[in-house]
Amino acid sequence: ADAPLIVRVEATKPGPRIDRDVFGQFAEHLGTGIYGGIWVGKASAIPNVRGIRSDVVRALRALKVPNVRWPGGCFADEYHWRDGIGPQTKRTVTVNANWGGVPEPNSFGTEEYMDFLGQIGAEAYVSVNVGSGTVEESSRWLEYMTTDQPTTLAKERAANGHPAPYKVKYLGLGNENWGCGGAMSPDHYVEQMKLFSHFSRNGNPAQKTTDQMKRIAVGWDADKGDYTEAVMKAWASKAWSWDIEGVSLHSYSVGGWPPRMASTGFGEDDYARLLKETRGMDDLIVKQSAIMDRYDPGKKIALVVDEWGAWLAPTPGSNPGFLQQQNSLRDAILAAINLNIFMRHADRVRVANIAQMINVLQAMILTDGPKMVLTPTYHVYRMYLPFQDATYVPLAYSSATYTHGTISMPQVDAVAARDTGGQLWVSATNVDPNRPAEIVLDVAGASVSQGSGQVLTAPRVDSVNSFAAPDTVAPAPITATQTAKGLRIVLPPKSVAVLALR
Ligand code: AHR
């Protein structure tokens, strides 16, 4: 048997705060992500509150979702907010040109989004249309959502059911404007972005001081840093009139473009390949942070990883434009690895949004008509709740290697943190699908004698939860035992565990 992996937990050397917004979600008008997944309409036989399905709301409330990015994605740069306000029967029907060319009924607009956020207890991350919209349109949308002054738009908002201003915590200044957002050169984007930053004013008085809206500029494309460079350079020499508080990074784990890795029925080759690729997120963050550090050594500007996750081949028989895929134990492990990377970079990565919340790409929840199932990724997010707003605790360890063919990577990936109540937590992932991993936690500076929590594993790397078998991948209890060297935990093959240390 392998010697146990000794993990030194530096409990007296607290690191940065892990912003809860790193556990954010992304809900785009795409396939059945919104229509069917969230919005069923008031007349639906599916139980709902004001048209928003109640089973999904219940499941998401349990995740304490901090923020939801909306309405896109590529959709955002073709979205016109006026199409989605006012009486349902008068909404404009448009075409969702990016995603399947299907009709977009605009039944889910600003009011419905804000209602959804209220029902699940999340905050708003709204992306404005820089690609095909105007500065005026964006500025008026912000006024409509946030002003407390008795303007015509505020009165219209009140007539639509919401007299009080909405809070917009994050404002996305476009989306992938190097691609679907208008194929702009970095310099052209920067000039546009400055106008949107300046004129999209937040009028909510409650947000004027400590709780200001944060504006996110478009940054790094998965393999190019030129947008980040241009945006940061402009920011460092900016005049008084505009500002940003974040720059985005998008990176999916795909296994080659176009996506063709199956989301079910795969073996260890695809498993190892995708996990190896996903570990590259660390490298991208290091590279983008290095650009940002040159202009912003004080780390004022957040790195916002507002699209990430597994992008796999569409579920056979589904509309390929709907980006539907199943979600397996592999996705759960992939999620844990990425969340761990974000936490290790908590000083710079302060927002992240997995793509996407429901029925699209690496989803939390799958629905089909009235049916709903929680995915393995959902369970990881639930197990990781203690890390929201926790204080990062450094770990020192040197993991054994998991090797499959020519692919190799550390077998164990672990992080630790102290939650807001002072409780110490550790998360450890064993990526090896064939061997357990024995680890011993040597906790420095805290008296710890017990560990207990949950472990997520399943019979196979491609095990999934289906409507017929919803609990194939579900958390089970796990405990640590005290030994002379520290707390001993045995991680099953291909598992994610989160334990409280007492
Ligand atoms: O999440 C799906 C799409 O991926 C988004 O709309 C776009 O921003 C990205 O390319």
TrEMBL record:
Organism this protein belongs to: Sphingomonas panacis
GO MF: alpha-L-arabinofuranosidase activity
Subunit structure: Homohexamer; trimer of dimers.
Pfam hit, one: ASD1_dom
Entry keywords, A to Z: Carbohydrate metabolism, Glycosidase, Hydrolase, Signal
EC number: 3.2.1.55
Record field: catalytic activity: Hydrolysis of terminal non-reducing alpha-L-arabinofuranoside residues in alpha-L-arabinosides
Limits of the Alpha-L-arabinofuranosidase C-terminal domain: 306-495
SMART domains on file: Alpha-L-AF_C
Keyword Signal: yes
Protein name per its UniProtKB record: non-reducing end alpha-L-arabinofuranosidase
InterPro entries, sorted: Alpha-L-AF_C, ASD1_cat, GH, Glyco_hydro_b
Alphabetical GO biological process terms: L-arabinose metabolic process; polysaccharide catabolic process
Similarity comment text for this entry: Belongs to the glycosyl hydrolase 51 family.
Keyword Ribosomal protein: no
